[in-house]
Write a structure and sequence with these properties.
Length: 91
């Protein structure tokens, strides 16, 4: 993804399960991961931006909730998604 945040529509298109899917756990995780990565880059340049840091921590917590849900619901989809998004497994 680099410095520029990936287009929201592109993310939805690459992770959706069906034609009109915009809210599945996979799509939500992909969107949150893109926002988290973007905010991480911002915080590297602006280390004193504590408001954004708080937002980042909230997003990480929300993503963890989605990951727990998906892990309990469909372990194979979960494993595939964390590999594709290049994020760590949750404990």
């Amino acid at each position: 993804m680099g410095g520029k945040i990936m287009d929201k529509k592109e993310i939805i298109d690459s992770y959706k399960l069906s034609e009109n899917d915009t809210g599945s756990a996979q799509v939500q995780l992909a969107l949150l991961t893109a926002r988290i990565n973007h905010l991480n880059e911002h915080l590297k340049k602006n280390p004193k931006d504590n408001h954004s840091r708080r937002g980042l921590l909230q997003m990480v917590g929300k993503r963890k909730g989605f990951m727990l849900y998906l892990k309990n619901k469909d372990i194979n989809a979960y494993r595939e998604l964390i590999k594709k998004l290049n994020i760590r497994d949750i404990k």
